[in-house]
Amino acid sequence: MKKKLTVIALAACLVAVIGFATGCGSKQKSALDDGVLQIGTNAEYTPFEYKDKNNKLVGFDVDLGRALAKKMGVKAKWTNTSFDGIFNGLNSGQYECIIAGVSNTDKRQKSFAMSDSYLGNGVVIVSPAGGAQATDIKQLDGKKVGVQLETTADYAAKAFKKDGNKMTLKEFDSMIDAFTALRGGQIDYIMTDEPVANFYVAQQPNTYKVSSSTLSNEPVAVVCRKQDTALRDKINDALKALKKDGTYGKLTKKWFGKDLTRQKINNKIKTYD
């Protein structure tokens, strides 16, 4: 799903310098010491995280984040931010981890402490249910294709264009806007994560249809700062516990219609960037 790694290295260096300066002569507090798990997210990615009609933060990731915090004996506190700045926000200390449908890519594993993947995922094509069905990338040639800005689908589409595909790329701030544009005929197709696509198709099966197989393999994980391996390990332990006690299965059934506790997640990453 989502990815953006510009200026991260510079931000990380700045955080390290600031952390060293402020830490001299005083004991640095560790994550969770205040009884809170500070989580960054981007509430524009239904069904992972979004605002409902009452402006309440909801979604699979939101429920999962709260369950993880509870399992670790703390409370979850959320910071909603734009996705193109979410990684810099993590490195600058605005929150302690990111739970936002983030793809567990090779690049991210080099720059961050990534949790175990908690959901299988890949990019698919969504077509109008009553229109021409695009089953592969070649059939997007010359078409208007919608993606969410700075997601792995966005990067994949740009890679395909670089390789010669003549699609017209339309970047949206949220998937809600992209699906609205597809319904209204402003675009011809959408590229997005499979769980996102399946959610919208389930809501309006006469309007949308997933028309391709997965074009990539990019399972979803929690993101921590590179140095915060202790927090990452606690999150991994909590994830295992949630699967064991049945909480994870209940959440996936609530949001995706099936218990994915025993889902075999392919961790052989395949992305286009």
Automatic annotation (TrEMBL):
Membrane spanning stretches: none
Subcellular location: Cell envelope
Domain of life assignment: Bacteria
Domain Solute-binding protein family 3/N-terminal: 36-259
Pfam family, one: SBP_bac_3
Annotated GO CC locations: cell envelope
PROSITE patterns referenced in this protein's UniProt entry, alphabetically: PROKAR_LIPOPROTEIN, SBP_BACTERIAL_3
Gene3D superfamilies named among the record's database cross-references: Periplasmic binding protein-like II
Name assigned to this protein: ABC transporter, substrate-binding protein, family 3
Sorted UniProt keywords: Signal
UniProt keyword annotation of RNA-binding present: no
Family to which the UniProt record says this protein belongs: Belongs to the bacterial solute-binding protein 3 family.
